[in-house]
Every structure is written in structure tokens, then in C-alpha cells.
Amino acid sequence: MTSVNKHVFTPLVSVIIPVYNGANYMHEAIDSALAQTYPHIEVIVINDGSRDDGATDEIAQSYGERIRYISKPNGGCASALNAGISHMKGEYFSWLSHDDVYKPEKIAHQMEVLSSLDNKDTILYSGYEIINSRSKPTGSVKPDAVLPPDKLNISLLPLLRGLIHGCSLLIPKRYFTEIGVFDETLPSTQDYALWFKFFRVAPIHFSPRIHVQSRVHPDQGTHKILGHISECNALWSGFLRELSEAEMC
């Protein structure tokens, strides 16, 4: 009897958690990352110069060797994400905000989807559930309720419809190397600015399952960053200026 060895697709995934003054919610975020049913992950927590009398540091340190912990001077979310990227060992990047939550099957399901695709450099995305400060669901965002199935995998379309949540993505590391990392001069739109660059060249694939809970609460950075609306307006105007005629079509 001849046995056939099939290649099992089990790449390392780096879950990167940037945190600033995160004592209220980061326990829940880190616990959800460590509870992933997919075994091949590393969890990297980046303390972006928190100013909370050591509360964030104490929580992160309590996890010991179960996470990789990096503390740096404050530089904003983009700088914290970039620090995580520079230290990641995984082939794939998965962002988790310190106040959001992964459901246990998030990475496992994405690996299952990616295994079924010929192109392993595909960026995966999905919808997300909205929760409040008490972790209670209050609604959801479902791209497949906004766009028909044949439009969901047209790379720039869901992005330009505002349907992409950064924590739902699974991104091959190669794009950070070949295209670039987050723009640290952008306090609140660094994510969409980079997705725009990635999605212009990368294939994307939508999964209808929801595995991310996005928290809406008064202490969110977007509520406190001065000039957030102006920065958003500049971002979207810039997209329109850069789009080619083919991309617009």
C-alpha cells in the first residue's frame, strides 16, 4: 500500500495588537487572540507609550511568554502596527485592535478559505459585528448585504464603499515588504490609505462568516483625534485623483 503525503497549509499567522491606554478592554482582546482554534499563531502586543500609570504594561506583562510584548514611545497607531510588522515572524498578518475581539474560529476559518484558493497571496476580508462598551452586540456590517456576490471580490469596490474593517483582514506579509507599511503621518486614516495601495494590486476574497467584533465606545481614538474629518476628506479626495479610468469602471 502506497501512502500519499499531501501538503498541509498551516503557515504561521502573526496577530498584532497595538494598544494605547488599553486597560479597559485589552484583556478581552488578548484572550480572544490566544483562544484561536488555529494553533500556528503568534500574538504580538505593542504598547504605544501608554500614559495610564502602568496599567496597560501590567496587563500585558501578566501574559508572560504566551505573547510577545514590545513597549515603545508613543507614535500613534500606525507606528505601533509598523513596529509589530517589523517583529513578526508569520507569513500572514492579522490586526486586532486592543478594544476589539476575535471569535475563536477567525484564523482557522480564514486558513480554510485560503487553502481552497489557488493564489495564496489573496487578501481575505469579511463583515463584522458591532459591540458596545459592555461587549453586547448592537448590530453588524455585512458587505454581502450591500454588494451583489459578483462584486464582492472586485478589489477596490468594497474598499471604496467603506466596507473594509482592518481587523477582519488576513494579509500576506509580502505586501508590506513589496508595497510598504502604514503611513505614520496619518493619525486616523492610515489603514484605508494602505489598503488602497494593496487592493490596487492584490486579489481579494470575501467570506460571509463574521468572526470579528468591533467595539464602539466614547474613548475610541477616532472620537478624540483632532482633524479626523479633514483627514478623511483628504483621503477620499486623494483616492479619486489617483484612480485610473479602468479602476473607476
The count of DSSP E runs of length 2 or more, i.e. the number of strands, is 11
Major sheet size, sense and barrel closure:
5 strands, mixed
Number of helices: 10
As laid out across the biggest beta sheet, the strand order is 3-2-1-4-9
Regions with pLDDT < 50 over 5+ consecutive residues? 1-6
Estimate the mean pLDDT confidence.
93
Q: Work out the strand percent.
A: 15-25%
Helix content range: 25-40%
Look at the helices and sheets and give the structural class: alpha/beta
Shape field: globular
Return Rg in Å: 18 Å
Span of the ends, CA to CA = 55 Å
Salient structural properties:
four-stranded mixed beta sheet; alpha/beta; 10 helices; globular; 33% helix
Give a verbal description of the structure:
The protein is α/β, with parallel strands linked by helices and 249 residues long. Helices cover 33% and strands 20% of the residues. The chain has helices spanning 26-34, 55-61, 77-87, 106-116, 156-160, 174-178, 190-199, 221-224, 228-242, 245-248; strands at residues 13-19, 41-48, 68-72, 92-95, 101-102, 123-126, 128-131, 137-141, 171-172, 204-207, 212-215. The strands form three sheets. The chain has a five-stranded mixed β-sheet with strand order 3-2-1-4-9, sandwiched between helices. Strands 5-11-7-8 form a four-stranded mixed β-sheet. Strand 1 (13-19), helix 1 and strand 2 (41-48) form a beta-alpha-beta unit. 35% of the residues are buried.
